[in-house]
Design goal:
Layout (H helix, E strand, L loop, with lengths): L4 E6 L3 H16 L3 E2 L8 E6 L4 H20 L4 E6 H6 L1 H6 L5 E3 L7 H12 L5 H8 L9 H5 L4 E3 L3 H4 L9 H7 L11 E5 L1 E2 L10 H4 L4 E2 L2 H13 L4 E5 L7 E3 L5 E2 L2 E2 L2 E2 L19 E3 H11 L5 E5 L8 H9 L6 E3 L7 H6 L6 H15 L9 E8 L6 H14 L3 E6 L7 H5 L6 H24 L5 E9 L1 H14 L47 E6 L4 E5 L6 H4 L3 E9 L3 E6 L2
Parallel strand pairs: 1-2, 1-3, 3-4, 4-5, 5-6, 7-10, 10-16, 17-18, 18-19, 22-24
Antiparallel strand pairs: 8-9, 9-14, 11-15, 12-13, 20-21, 20-23, 21-22, 23-24
Helix pairs in contact: 11-12, 12-13, 13-15, 16-18
Bound molecules: 5'-deoxyadenosine and iron/sulfur cluster.
Iron/sulfur cluster binds next to α10.
Length: 582
């Protein structure tokens, strides 16, 4: 009997995308099949995000749809994974009885067991006769008859890392999920995420992450380097290191704990930054700092031709890190370093721990180290801004617009403040900026950022840039889907999309800055005379999207995952267009 098909939908950030990939490879290894069609799945999983209310609303509405579907398909298993599972806990099960499995981001390694339980529970809905027959199956496949009969939901939330006094006391089983990552050549597009840190210790007042993902925990450097090596061996050429505040990465070998032969991740130490201090105070023989980690990966895994990291925290970003980036040809000249506001008063209320002038000092310092357009290595910056934080005045807002002009981000994600239950801000402040004011400020900043992005991308016109080819553009993929659907018999699997914008219009509400790719369940056909050339989508070292037509005689399959030179001849605010120089 084939294992049930799983549909997994991911909301939110890159960390969630990686979690979904790890969950997928874990379930695949156990024999589960995945389908891109929710309708064809008997297990539907949502990996959720709680950062803004809007992301949660989407999940509630999906769950509503699933409740209707379950009425006609009672054996359907529905799971909620990620931050919403952690934040809502039992309340989610009560509000949405359709949910069978609930797993917080700190417990994802337990998903297979919970799913198995839920599947067996589903059998309780079957007839007595079927249960008898199943119970008589060979010992190795025999379901637990008690479980067959037990009904109910299974939940596992509760981020252990925040709650346990010392993480060292227990094995960090979540680390096993990262370690067990199945790296198969056909399951990637030349690009991958690697986690270096989980959780966050910053407690920005608006943010739910420290509560859902728990305390900051750093993975052992050797695990990270080994994972990069395995990915490189499987053909990955671009890696994005992930953490909420990557530059705070720090692993003290003297304090490392080993359980069952596995070095355990380590809780972050509280790092008090002193003004004017640009070196990591913990640097030394026994400590791997973020600068050390970057240098290690760059040196030990040269097959990784592009190494990026997100997200940087604007405070305590040392010259040591900037120096390593400057000296390393394969580390991208790209920083995603959210400011959140250009008003000192707002930054104070947000508990960001820096002033606007300190922020600007940091990006000036980064530019003076890393912006070298004369050798073809410009630095690009990306940012995040929240508008309409409680008590934000027009003056505060004008200061933020000013910051945008000074920072000259290549793109900036602009969010309307969304009060999140459980955060400090929701208790401390009234959400007093009316929604129409938030919307207006949001639109004004988007328009301003559009102009800035256009002027940043205009500087690339005429240059030849090395670009990493990610896949067919969304436009071309849509056309292929239409063609494939017309040509293929009903029921055949069509080309599936990664689900995110490839046309340069990065959604203002997304926190992802990493390029998505088109997942090809089937190889993309070469350009055909009637359909015209296929448009491909690529990224520069500075993470700018570049579109170009697949050259005649070349198949997109040959180019995806490659780094090739493209001469830029046209620009848009968020994308460049050019011709490959092959
Ligand atoms: N409301 C609006 N935006 C938020 N972010 C985090 N929490 C909130 C919130 N409560 C934004 C920040 C962060 C990005 C991932 O999401 O800008 O950098
Ligand atoms: Fe949230 Fe602040 Fe941590 Fe980023 S640094 S995850 S905004 S608490």
């Amino acid at each position: 009997m084939p294992e049930p098909a799983v549909y997994l939908e991911t909301f939110g950030c890159q960390m969630n995308e990686l979690d979904s990939e790890l969950v997928t490879s874990q379930l695949r290894a156990l024999g589960y099949r995945f389908t891109p069609e929710a309708e064809q799945a008997s297990i539907v999983l949502y990996n959720t995000c709680s950062v803004r209310e809007h992301a949660e609303q989407k999940v509630w509405s999906r769950l509503g749809e699933m409740a209707l579907r379950k009425a006609r398909q009672p054996e359907l298993v529905v799971g909620v994974l990620g931050c919403m599972a952690e934040r809502e806990g039992d309340a989610l099960l009560k509000r949405m009885p359709v949910v069978d499995v609930l797993v917080g981001p700190g417990e994802l390694d337990k998903l297979p067991g919970l799913l198995d339980n839920a599947l067996r529970t589903r059998l309780s809905l079957l007839s007595d006769e079927t249960v008898q027959r199943l119970a008589a199956t060979p010992e190795t496949h025999k379901p637990d008859v008690n479980l067959l009969r037990s009904a109910g939901q299974v939940a596992l939330a509760g981020n252990t890392s925040r709650r346990s006094a010392t993480l060292a006391a227990a094995q960090d089983t979540l680390e096993m999920l990262d370690l067990a990552r199945a790296v198969e050549p056909d399951h990637h597009s030349g690009s991958a995420y690697v986690r270096i840190t989980r959780g966050c210790n910053k407690f920005c007042t608006y943010c739910v992450v420290p509560f859902t993902r728990g305390a900051e925990v750093h993975r052992p450097p050797q695990h990270i380097v080994d994972e990069c090596k395995r990915l490189a061996d499987a053909g990955v050429v671009e890696i994005t290191l992930l953490g909420q505040t990557v530059n705070h990465y720090r692993f003290e070998h003297g304090a490392a704990v080993t359980v069952g032969g596995v070095v355990q991740p380590q809780k972050g130490r509280v790092y008090k930054h002193t003004r004017g201090e640009y070196a990591d105070p913990y640097a030394g023989e026994n400590v791997t700092t973020f600068a050390d980690l970057l240098a290690m990966i760059h040196e030990q895994v040269p097959a990784i031709r592009r190494l990026r990291f997100v997200t940087s925290f604007p405070r305590s970003f040392g010259d040591d890190v900037l120096t390593v980036i400057r000296q390393s040809p394969r580390i991208c000249r790209y920083l995603h370093v959210p400011a959140q506001s250009g008003s000192d008063r707002m930054l104070g209320l947000m508990n960001r721990g820096y002033t606007v002038s300190e922020y600007l000092e940091f990006i000036d310092r980064a530019r003076s180290f890393l912006h070298q357009p004369e050798i073809g290595r410009p630095l690009t910056l990306a940012g995040d801004i929240i508008v309409g934080f409680p008590t934000e005045t027009e003056e505060d807002f004008a200061a933020t617009a000013d910051l945008l002009r000074k920072a000259r981000y290549k793109n900036c994600f602009i969010f309307k403040y969304s009060p999140r239950p459980g955060t400090i801000a929701i208790d401390r402040f009234t959400d007093d900026v009316p929604d129409e004011v938030k919307r207006r400020r949001n639109n004004q900043l988007l328009a301003l950022q559009n102009e800035i992005s256009a002027s940043v991308s205009a500087e690339f016109v005429g240059q030849t840039l090395d670009v990493f080819v990610q896949g067919v553009s969304k436009r071309a993929a849509k056309r292929k889907v239409a063609q494939a659907t017309a040509a293929r018999p009903a029921g055949a699997v069509a080309l599936t999309l990664g689900g995110k914008s490839l046309d340069g219009s990065e959604p203002a509400s997304a926190c992802s800055v990493h390029g998505s790719h088109v997942h090809d369940e089937q190889p993309v056909a070469a350009a055909t005379a009637d359909a015209g050339p296929i448009q491909l989508s690529a990224r520069t070292d500075g993470d700018i999207i570049v579109f170009f037509d697949c050259p005649p005689g070349r198949s997109p399959d040959d180019l995806v995952g490659e780094i090739i030179p493209v001469k830029i001849d046209r620009h848009e605010p968020l994308a460049l267009h050019g011709r490959p120089v092959l």
